[in-house]
Hints:
There is one protein chain. The strands form 3 sheets. Strands 5-4-10-1-11-12-9-8 form an 8-stranded mixed sheet, sandwiched between helices. The protein is of the alpha/beta class. Helix 1 runs parallel beside helix 2 (47-60). The protein has helices at residues 20-33, 47-60, 91-94, 110-114, 117-134, 160-171, 175-181, 213-217, and strands at 2-7, 11-12, 17-18, 40-43, 65-66, 76-78, 83-85, 137-140, 143-146, 153-158, 189-198, 201-211. The chain has one domain: Phosphoglycerate mutase-like (Rossmann fold, 3-Layer(aba) Sandwich), CATH 3.40.50.
Amino acid sequence: MRFLIVRHGDPDYQKDALTETGRKEALALSERMKNIRADECYVSPLGRARETASYSLEKMHMEATQLEWLREFAPKVQRTEKIGVAWDWLPQDRAQMPYAFDPERWTEYPAFQDAKVREELDWIYSNFESFLENHGYQKDGKFFKAIHPNNDTIVFFCHFGLECVLLSYLLHLPLFVLWHSAIAAPTSITTVVTEERRPGIAQFRMLSFGDTSHLYAAGIEPAFSGRFRECYTNENERMD
């Protein structure tokens, strides 16, 4: 089995739509996706993801099924300075959080408990687990049982925060670390495949993360959405 996890294009979060840059990115993405032989496509119910997907789906001659759990990770958390998404913590604050780097206990932090982050996480994991079982793979501790092994290609059009949740489940990686140590640029593609070295036993392996080669092929520099200043004095880059 092969998963292509595609982040939406450069967003206008207020309108839940794409910016002009995002539409150009989505068009460049579609030129790559038209050559993908996908078996099934799924999309977040949010507008920026659906708009991104529409360009590719038209050229792929496919439709996508909306899945509610592919929406962006929803809980809003009271951070040190303001209320915001669960994964946007300043390094100096994150370093002092108990269990921040523990893959199981990080949600015990009071701000996460108040925002019901664990409940949201378990809801997504549960839905993804059912999805995988319906497609032939059953989680068994740190690996998967290949009940009905297959070479299907599944495409998810979704969001960076949610993408990391899915990767944490498939690859057994600490989610809170993924959120803060990686970035999938707008319209980037992450590819994850099964490996079955013994009959009936599978693991997932990431072949590429956040691939934006289609943007460079189109002469487009990846948008900065989701990232922050590389140097604090870089005034042309996002600070907050």
